Amino acid sequence: MDHIEFYRNFPLLPPQSLDPLKADGYIEIGEDQQCIHVGMTELSVKHTSKFYSRIIDECDKEVGWDNVESFDKELQIMTIMLIDEAKKEHKVYVDFASENFSSDIDENSVSMEFGLKKYMDVLRKKCEQLADCWALLDDVDSSLCVLQPQNPKRSELWRRLAVSDFASALLEVVPDLFCPQITVYGPNSIAAPLNAKVKGARGMWNGALSARANLEAIFDFPLPEPGSFNQKDIKLECGICFSYRAENEDADQICSSDPCAQPFHRKCLVQWLTTKEDTRQSYNTYFGKCPYCSENIIVTSK
Amino acid sequence: MLTALSTKRLMRELNQLIKNPPSSHVRLLSHETLDKWKIQIIGADETLYADEKYILQFKFPNDYPLESPEVVFVGDCVPVHPHIYSNGHICLSILYQQWSPALTAEAVCISILSMLSSCTQKKPPKRDAIYVKRTKTASPKKTSWRFDDDNV
User: Fold this and answer.
1) Number of domains chain A contains
2) For A65, which DSSP code?
3) ipTM exceeds 0.85
């Protein structure tokens, strides 16, 4: 658009410059020719995507601009609000820089080729499928002492709960599966009997009762209140990499000597043991010493 | 290049050291890069090294914590101690054969402080001059250490 054309279209909006476009003034709208004040600055779009027009078209026709919540400053990420049948709000991110879609619901991103409308439909279906899981997890989050994850995302379908002073339980929900999967971690003397109770109570989960009532029925003792433990009280982190989840695996290899009970990731522990000369190996099983208490520790690599 | 495992772990350690320093005798001076830190230690009260300030340099290998960090005294001032050579090399088992990923940079500092604290006589190691001449500025991890003196 050149100066003359710009002036013809917006006579009350004198541009300070056309490239990049910068203008401040008024434009007339409606039949009664009301004026509104406009200041405009062209945003420098670092990356232009061939998908802009397609997404805009989809927003016009199908998704609806009402649902578009925000754009980031560089016009690279558009956030869309998706409200599911249970009135839960989910954010969908349309990322023009990497040309993909992602969301709170699903960790994996999907290429823009897929189409926004189609992606939203997939998410809606997923919401439907996960509604029961989320209801259970919301109940868990509000009534039990959750150690991990600290700020759970909708895509995270697991919780690490405090069970007692030394033990924690991993609760995982699976869509379409009636009851959550529970595994107790901690020193052997505490965890083993509790895991036996979990095994014994298989199929007893009562969907009509709260998560707390169900778990207390399984373990047969009251569980800690929310906030009564924090992460530091119960050893959850791998003693080698110091993180909790790595490559989607829990630090679930626990040193079996009682006061130690240090957790490790399988991979980290195998890596450490293979560096030690006193480790013995038989097929894919390693017999070595715990780096914390020096007692025997056994791990099988996957 | 640090691996994902070592990056994550070093971030944790660094964070911890900045937020909750173990004592007023251990202070992080700099971390130009994630794998090279300088930490000041101050000799504990009522010991031979009381109030003396020394600087430890930590270099973390790419596969830390599977491998131990390289730790030496740097700066003008190296403590005179039977297990510390005048080029800054430290004869301490946990830095070499006895390393375990259960240890952290912070734990190493505390160990070195306690090594200073338990010393009863400030004297250099035997044959310090020969060792220093031979190793110069090479990494102490290249030395094959013998740990036979448990007294200090």
Assistant:
1) 3
2) G
3) no
